[in-house]
Each structure stands twice: as C-alpha cells, then as structure tokens.
Amino acid sequence: MLSIEIKVEALHAWYGNDEVLHGIDLAIEPRSVTAIIGPSGCGKSTFIRCLNRLHETNPGARVAGHVWVGGEDVYRMDPIDVRRTIGMVFQRPNPFPTMSIFDNVALGLKFAGVKDRRRLRARVEESLAMAALWDEVKDRLHQPAMSLSGGQQQRLCIARALAVEPRVLLMDEPTSALDPISTMRIEELVQNLKQTYTIVIVTHNMQQAARIADQTAFFLDGHLIEVGPTSKVFTKPDDKRTEDYVSGRFG
Amino acid sequence: MKRRSDRVLDGWLWFAALLALALFMAFFIMLGTESRASVLRFGWRFVVTSVWDPVHSVFGALPFLYGTAVTSLFALVFGGLVGVCTAVFLVYFVRGWFRSWLGGAIELLAAIPSVVYGLWGLFVLAPWLQHTLEPWLGRWLGFLPLFQGVPYGVGYLAAGLILSVMILPTVTALSRDVLLAVPRDIHEGALALGATTQEMITHVALPYARSGIISALMLGLGRAVGETIAVTMVIGNRPEISASLFAPGYTMASVIANEFTEATTHVYLSALYEVGLLLFLLTVAFYVVARLFIRGIAKTEGNV
To answer: Do A92 and B185 lie within an 8 Å CB cutoff?
Structure first.
C-alpha cells in the first residue's frame, strides 16, 4: 500500500452562487508530479487554489469538503500555516517589484519569523540553487527582481516558494507566459524538485503533462472525469470525454 | 499627407498646450517684475527677518514662511497619516456598499467650500480647542515647547487641523485608487508565502503603491500650502513666530489676502508680490521634488 501525501474528499467550491467544483475526490502520492488538465473554465485552477486555501480569499468565494496534507486537515489549520506547508507558483511570474532578488526569496522567511542574517542568507542561497537560478544571480543578489528575464523571474518565484520549506508545491500554469527554452528549464526543474516535494501542476499544455507528470487528472465543468497514471490517461483513457480532450477534439 | 480637419485639430491642441505654458511663464514674469522693488530694497533680509511694519515700510516675511511651513507640514503628517490609513481601511477591510458609501462621503469633503471650513473652524473648532483640547494637551504634553503657552483657540493648531481635514479627501481618494491598482497576483504572491493581511499590506502592497501614495501626499501638501481663506479665518493673523502650536500666526497666502487692499505704497504692494512669488516658487519646488522622488523610485525598480 502506497502512502498518501494529499487526500481530497468531496471538495466543492463556489464563486458567489456559482458552484465551480462539484465534489472532487483525489489522492496524491508523496514526491510525485500530478498534472491537472482540462479546458479553460473547468475549475482546475480553482481546485489547486482550494488546496492552499487561497480560493477563499476572493470575495464571495466558498469551499466545502476535506483536504488532508500529510495527515492534517487543511481546513482545520490556520490558513497562514497551510500556505507555509503548501507553496504556490503562479501563471504569470509575480516577483515583488519593489524588492531585490535576495529580498524576494527572504520575504517568506521573514514572515515565518527568521531574523538571523546568516540563516537567511544560507536559506536564500539553498533555495535559489534548488530553483536552478543561483549561478545566474549570485553576483547580483541585490539588484531589482524586475531586472531578470521572464523565465528567471519564474524560477525566482519557485525559489521564493521553496525558501519556507513547504511539503507541497502547487504550480498554476507556470510556463504559459514563458518562451520554449524557459519552459524547458522549468520542466527540468520540476523533475528534480519531485525528489523532495510533492508537486501539483495545472497545465494547458498536454505535451507538458505527458512529459513531466506521474499522474494526470482530467477536469471538465468542475468534475474530475478521470485520474490515473499519465501514460494510461493519454493512451487508454477509460472515459470517452477524456479521450476526446487528449486527442484534441475539443478544448 | 494630413487631412484638413486633422490639421485644424492639431493646431487647436498645440494652442491649448502652449497656452498653459505661456500662462505659467506670464505669472512668473509678472510676479518677478512686480516684486522687483521689494527684492532690491530688502534682499535676503526679506526672508530671514520677521518685522512686518507697513507704517515704516520695513518688510520681513519670515513669520509667513514659518506659518505656511508649520501648518502645511502639520496637515501633511496628520492629514496624510489619517488619509493613507483610511485608504488602507477602504481597500482591505470593507467591501461592497459600505466601501463606496464611505469613500463617497470622504470625497464629498472636497466639495465643501473653503469658506465654510473657515466658518466651522472659527466658531466650532477654535472654541473647542481653546477650552478642551489645548488645555488637555498642555497638561499632558506641556513639557514639549509645541504644547506650551496660553490656549488661544485660533492659531497654528486650528489651521493645521483644518488643513488636515481639507487634504484628507485628496490623499484618501488617490491612495485608495493606487492601492486598488496593485495587481491581485502581487497580493496573492504574498498570501501564498504565508503572509498575514497586515504583512501583505506593509511588506508588499504599500511598497508597491508608494510612488502613487507620495504623489497623493504631494498633491495634498500643494493644496495645504496654497489654501487661503479657511486658514486666514482660523490662524489669528499675527505676524509672529512662536514654537507653540497654540499661538496665533500668519501664512503667506493669508497675508496676501488680508492686506492687498491696504497696500497703498509701492513697496508695500511689491512686498506682497514677493510673498506671492515665494509661495509660487515653494509649490513649484514641492512639485519638482515629488517628481524627482518618484522617478528615483521608478529607477530602482527597473522598468516598473
């Protein structure tokens, strides 16, 4: 029996009166990559935003159901602690523009109460190294984050998320605003990071899911239609709708 | 090849744009030539001495410079702080009808005519200051020179408070709009790192919005420096410098408003024009400093 890192049970989510997730059940193994695919508006972003309780920060947004991470019920925890346990990388690189490269990575640590300069510095270096950015920025840590290229900014955002030592990393279409070479670097990075972290990645790009994910979940209209090993979902899906989507007939 | 209608429009736009520039230059030249007599006669003494004696034609404008500086800085600090805090409250702590209702009410403060502020200041605020607030401040903070002396009611404190209220709508409305324009993904970036709402505001949103907030404060300061009638009604109009906020004083704008009808001699009128010139230069200087400051911030942030 394999262990479970993330367990989702009967998860519903609303925007105002619109129900956008209709009861999702999903289990994710530790140190694996799970891809969430589906057409625009199918609820895949909302789904991962429910995992770190970011969905409920939207006005009028509501969630019901259960999410366990490492055995703990996320919806019984303090949301601040949840978001330290579950890091997130967004669709468009969003480094804090008023801050230097160093300060961007150190900010989460400061929120967590780390004050010791030497520890901050060590952790910033580690995180940048894990995000495969250290060599490119080690001589310019105090330059503005906005001086980096788009792909570098996104790796900076990954480093920022890793700095607080989360268990899980959520990625919401992390490469959709990037060029192919930057995209490839992020994909390689995901492959390395899964040795340490459990990764859930939303993607619009089915080739990307096929390249990097161990498990793929297909969402449609707020329902989880099918979930399974990536190769099976792409080659022998159980559901006709999954087959239509992965073969490019809609979406 | 441009069409005729385009050329006409072009001409109009150039005319309109150049008109503003020409007016600015005309004001500057007019103030310069009119204040010539005073500049030649008093030189630097005009801005460093504090005797204002029309009878003997001796003019030193330091009390007015001091009064304008004290009252507008008071408004900048007090009104600015309250304004920025109100903006943060409106953006992050209330939503829906209450936000728009409260925001609208604060913006309406800008629609009250200055003279009405003056009336209220003279008949409501000043007596309250004299009998309640100033004695209280004197008792608890009287060890500071700022809060010593006889409570007059009318004076720097009354003028500073009136100006604070008057710049509040400008500072609040602009800061609110600037904070509302902070992108959602910047806020979410902070939340996703485990920030509390307060940490998100202080570490991420306010720094992001700072150039806009500084512009808002500078616009408020500009209004405070130039405000005339309300201040004239509550400041006491005494050309003296005192460390106490309770004491009556005078500002540059109020001395011009009060004395232009009495300025019978050439040098008296010229002295008033020089006060006007200084006021004009002061507001231009504020504006330039604010622009440079904002540009400096923009530069350190790369292309943002």
So the answer is: yes
User: Mapping DSSP to helix (H, G, I), strand (E, B) and coil, where does residue A239 land?
Assistant: coil
Average pLDDT value for residue range B45-50:
94
CA distance B230 to B254: 9
Using a 10 angstrom Cβ sphere, with 0-12 exposed, 13-18 middle and 19 or more buried, the burial of residue B19 is: exposed
- C-beta separation of B60 from B296 below 8 A: no
Unique residue bearing structure tokens 């992020």? A186
Considering only CA atoms, which of B45, B25, B49, B40 is closest in space to residue B266? B40
Per-residue pLDDT at B293: 78
Number of compact structural domains in chain B: 1
Question: Which residue numbers in chain A have pLDDT < 70?
Answer: 1-2, 251
> Complex ipTM, two decimals?
0.92
Cβ within 8 Å, pair B207-A147: no
Residues of chain B contacting A107 with CB distance shorter than 8 Å: 190, 193, 203-204
DSSP A100: B
Determine the topology of domain A6-94+167-246 in CATH.
Answer: Rossmann fold (3.40.50)
Is 60 exceeded by the pLDDT of residue B303? no
For chain A, give every domain's residue range: 6-94+167-246
